[in-house]
Write a structure and sequence with these properties.
Blueprint: E1 2-7, H1 10-18, E2 23-26, H2 39-48, E3 53-56, H3 68-84, E4 88-91, H4 102-112, E5 116-119, H5 129-139, E6 143-146, H6 157-166, E7 171-174, H7 183-188, E8 193-196, H8 229-239
Parallel strand pairs: 1-2, 1-8, 2-3, 3-4, 4-5, 5-6, 6-7
Helix pairs in contact: 3-4
């Protein structure tokens, strides 16, 4: 069974390799489900990690329906990963009604070329998972990362098993909440790969700051924070 570790930093990637992981999904910002890592992180991991690395391509938090500009950014990030010699891409696009955006996902898959392609946990929002599975099978996607449309893969294991049975070629990779206490369930069910972060919060400074830099108001699945023209105009008009 392949053990894929979702690594959010160079340190996490190195630890994953030392622990015997088979592969890394490299990203940043686990708290929002993962975002595309920076060029500096990509370069450092490429230089210091020898196991295969698949790179998450997700330009922002929130939903998985993207503007043309956002989509072009995704294509540019994939081109960089291809140029740098990474092993795989993790990405995907939905329509606003929670159906698979097969056209745009195919474009991302084509841009990845010979790299492995994983359709990520946007799959867990899809209204018609079996129809989407057929389309992703036809695209020759390598993996679907999913929790079985539940809060954890253990809760969603029955749907994951059904998807595995109906899949022609794409591998169903359970992810979310997997640990040493439940991973044997997925091995027994015949899955060939699992995905986990294996993280814990590690204290980095002695004292808690007086104010927080985290803004909970910006965290949303169905809203995206965008600078508003009138808000900036109003401030500029006051001071210019």
């Amino acid at each position: 069974m392949i053990v894929e570790v979702c690594a959010n930093s160079l340190e996490s990637a190195i630890v994953a390799e030392q622990a015997g992981a088979d592969r890394i999904e490299l990203c940043s910002e686990l708290a929002v489900g993962g975002l595309t890592p920076s060029y500096g992180l990509l370069k450092a991991v490429k230089e210091q990690v020898s196991i295969p690395v698949h790179v998450l391509i997700r330009p922002r938090s929130g939903d998985f329906t993207y503007s043309d500009d956002e989509f072009n950014i995704m294509l540019a990030d994939i081109a960089l990963c291809v140029e740098m010699g990474f092993d795989g891409i993790v990405s995907g696009v939905l329509l606003s009604d929670f159906l698979l955006d097969a056209d745009r996902t195919q474009i991302l898959k084509d841009a990845a070329g010979e790299l492995k392609f994983t359709f990520h946990r946007a799959f867990d929002w899809i209204e018609n998972p079996f129809e989407a599975l057929q389309k992703l099978d036809a695209m020759q996607v390598d993996y679907i990362l999913s929790s079985g449309q539940q809060n954890s893969a253990l809760l969603g294991v029955d749907l994951l098993s059904e998807l595995k049975k109906k899949s022609k070629s794409v591998q169903i990779m359970p992810g979310s909440g997997i640990n040493a206490g439940n991973v044997e369930t997925f091995k027994t069910r015949g899955f060939s790969a699992v995905h986990l972060s294996g993280t814990a919060l590690v204290k980095t400074i002695l004292n808690k700051p007086n104010i927080s830099m985290n803004s909970e108001g910006f965290l949303s699945d169905d809203h995206v924070a965008i600078t508003q023209l009138e808000n900036i105009n109003a401030v500029v008009a006051k001071v210019k």
